[in-house]
């Protein structure tokens, strides 16, 4: 029962954060009516989101935190956001992985969700600069009750490097490792994506490592939920015309979809209607 309650709380907080960001602020009494929960439950949710640093509590409600372009949230803070969207994106992106191919996964919570779905794709070689992603495949190699590793468990190449707040490995060691490799598809998580700035991150070293990943890939697939559209980090590392496909969720507004389709050859919107 407690696990179900935790899941419901995570989903509710993701909805609250989306409303705050979309509307620029919201009142407690609006949220109680919209989500059919008590005033005290909403206040606890706002307290939790404020501790994560993604909203600011004000009298009677909450407003979004205006983040500096250099702000980089940690993995744990990001892992509780847009959970259903990330699962939809991961499921759709995993269908793009061809058995027996060499793929790369960058760091991030969406690529972490994708890694779990890729366990079902046989004979992959996975290059990653994400400690969390590598752990997913490493755990799958452990013996099962039947006596052997999971059938879809992949061969993993972890680049090495300096660890960022989002548990990515970056810097000269990672860059040199990536420069010597070539892969069929790069599944790339991003801090922000926009027409003007392209793909961006608040971490300068991560931007350079991501440039190397893009350069080493025959095909680039960006995996990012709708909240990343219009966000701009300190450093751009790729233009939109370097991206082959953008896999996102149904929360992306129609206007943004039209804008993206004008600049990208492949837009995939995963999941159902956000109002469903």
By DSSP, the count of extended strands is 15
Given helix and strand content, the structural type is: alpha/beta
Largest sheet: 7 strands, parallel
Radius of gyration (Å): 19 Å
Q: What spatial form do the alpha-carbon principal axes imply?
A: globular
Structural description of this entry:
By secondary structure, this protein is of the alpha/beta class. It has helices at residues 2-23, 28-35, 39-51, 75-79, 83-94, 109-118, 131-140, 172-179, 204-216, 254-263, and strands spanning 26-27, 55-58, 61-64, 102-105, 125-128, 155-158, 162-163, 169-170, 183-188, 192-194, 198-201, 217-223, 235-238, 245-249, 267-270. The strands form four sheets. Strands 6-5-4-9-12-14-15 form a seven-stranded parallel β-sheet, sandwiched between helices. A three-stranded antiparallel β-sheet has the order 1-3-2. A hairpin with a 2-residue loop joins strand 2 (55-58) and strand 3. It is globular. Mean pLDDT is 84; it is low at 1-7.
Short description:
This protein is an alpha/beta fold and 276 residues long. 40% of the residues lie in helices and 21% in strands. Pfam families: DeoRC, HTH_DeoR.
Notable features of this structure?
276 residues, alpha/beta, seven-stranded parallel β-sheet, 10 helices, 40% helix, disordered N terminus
């Amino acid at each position: 029962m407690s696990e179900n309650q935790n899941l419901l709380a995570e989903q509710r907080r993701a909805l609250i954060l989306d409303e705050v960001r979309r509307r620029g602020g919201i009142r407690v009494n609006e949220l109680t009516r919209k989500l059919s929960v008590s005033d005290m439950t909403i206040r606890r949710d706002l307290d939790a989101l404020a501790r994560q640093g993604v909203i600011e509590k004000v009298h009677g409600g909450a407003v979004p935190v205006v983040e500096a372009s250099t702000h980089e949230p940690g993995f744990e803070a990001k892992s509780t956001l847009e959970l259903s969207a990330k699962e939809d994106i991961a499921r759709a992106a995993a269908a793009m992985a061809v058995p027996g191919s060499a793929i790369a996964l960058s760091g991030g919570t969406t690529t972490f969700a994708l890694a779990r779905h890729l366990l079902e794709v046989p004979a992959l070689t996975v290059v990653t600069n994400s400690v969390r992603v590598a752990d997913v495949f490493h755990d799958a190699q452990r013996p099962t009750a039947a006596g052997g590793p999971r059938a879809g468990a992949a061969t993993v190449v972890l680049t090495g490097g300096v660890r960022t707040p989002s548990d990515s490995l970056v810097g000269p060691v990672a860059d040199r490792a990536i420069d010597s490799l070539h892969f069929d598809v790069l599944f790339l998580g991003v801090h922000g994506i926009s027409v003007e700035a392209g793909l961006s991150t608040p971490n300068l070293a991560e931007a350079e490592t991501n440039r190397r990943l893009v350069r080493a890939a025959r095909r680039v697939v960006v995996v990012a939920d709708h909240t990343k559209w219009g966000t701009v980090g300190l450093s751009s590392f790729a233009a939109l015309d370097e991206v082959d496909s953008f896999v996102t969720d149904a929360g992306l507004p129609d206007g943004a979809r039209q804008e993206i389709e004008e600049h990208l050859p492949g837009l995939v919107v995963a999941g159902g209607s956000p109002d469903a």
